[in-house]
Fold this sequence. Notes:
Blueprint: H1 5-15, H2 19-22, H3 29-37, H4 45-48, H5 52-59, E1 69-70, H6 81-121, E2 128-131, H7 134-144, E3 152-156, H8 161-174, E4 177-181, H9 190-199, E5 205-211, H10 223-232, E6 236-240, H11 252-255, E7 259-263, E8 275-279, H12 281-284, H13 312-328, H14 330-348, E9 354-356, E10 369-373, H15 378-389, E11 391-392, E12 394-397, E13 402-406, H16 414-428
Parallel strand pairs: 1-11, 3-4, 3-5, 5-6, 6-7
Antiparallel strand pairs: 2-8, 7-8, 9-10, 10-13, 12-13
Helix pairs in contact: 3-13, 6-13, 7-8, 9-10, 14-16
Amino acid sequence: MQQSRRDFIRKSSLLAGSLPLLAGFNPLMADEIARAARSVEHLTPQQAARDEDFWYQVQRAFRQSPHFTNLENGYFSPQPLEVMEQQFDNIKLVNEQSSYYMRKRQEDDKQAVKEQLAAFAGVSADEIVITRNTTEALNIVIMGLDMQAGDEAVMTDQDYGSMLEAFAMRAQRFGIKNKIISLPLHPKSDEEIVEAYEKAITKKTKVILVTHLINLTGQVLPARKIADMAHSHGVEVIVDAAHSFAHLDYRIPDLDCDYFGASLHKWLCCPLGAGILFMKKDKIAKTWPLFGDTGQPVDSIRKFEHIGTHPVSTNLTIAAAIKFHNSIGSQRKQERLRYLKSYWVNQVKDLPGVIINTPFEKERSSALANFSIADMKPDEIADYLYRKHKIFTVGINRTAVQGVRVTPHLYTTLADLDKLVAAIKELAA
Length: 429
Ligand SMILES: Cc1ncc(COP(=O)(O)O)c(C=O)c1O
């Protein structure tokens, strides 16, 4: 009898001695979590965030290295085992049918997934493209924007390096002008942020780049308020949602932005190499594709899809990741991630020498937070945490912020965070 891959995974993990993390794993994991979620249905999302029995079920959907504690989940998210298993199945399907699959089935299957992703994001399938990541999605936008020499773009010194570089390249090549503003690490109000952008707008400003959830510190910007202000000046808005998509509880239309890019391998827990580009319908015709495409109508979103042969199995697996996400629920997920962040931050924020570089107000951050310790370099702190305690974090060294970024995930336990708190106390002393 042919051995199923699931049996194979179980047996190989037995050999690897990692059975406890796989115990109870079966292909209906998302269904099991959805069933477990019924036990927290009567709770508010904030109360459910503290129900360790429920989150224990969610933790068991992931398998993590037992050799260190990963508190650097900002780079990308591990997939739940069920999603990874679905990816293997999809790889097998595409490989078995090879060019027959690519010629006869690929387009229909990808369109079906695209429709699911569009519904999840609250938009229509003819406004989105499945890209390989945020970098690709936003390079399509930044390089394709309808801008002439002398036109201006506004961004901040806390935006992601690749986006700043894409704008810098556009400036070098086509003569646009970039205005880079600074934002406070601890804003007093949304208005303070909105005003900082507004002050940089001139008659020549065409576009503003807004990082919805800043990767350096975890600060969440009031993207909708910035968009409303920008639109009142006739300025378009690009949202870099690499970290906010499937992390904060919102749908794309809530932000009313013109262009939007996110990575699905971050908080949606898709396989590496999946992203989304959204563009408002009336912006499509005037935006140039990054890869040559004259075959599609100029006002079709499909003109941005032309990247050549690529691993379709990754696109197909997005469906399993959405199912997993929905088994928990967007609000519960957001509140749990916020709770994990507050759990450690609240225990260290008043220690002498410890500085928290992330806003404290609930709606201004979520899973990610950044701390520093007086007279220590970020890399020294991160090295110490790993060397002494096998806690993996990342040192952030940007002009706008220096500190260590800590990013728990759905599989993070309170015991993991207790270890971090003890280590920070040790360092601060
Ligand atoms: C704010 C922000 N934008 C864009 C990116 C780029 O994401 P990717 O490498 O998946 O394209 C990142 C990655 O961490 C990010 O934090």
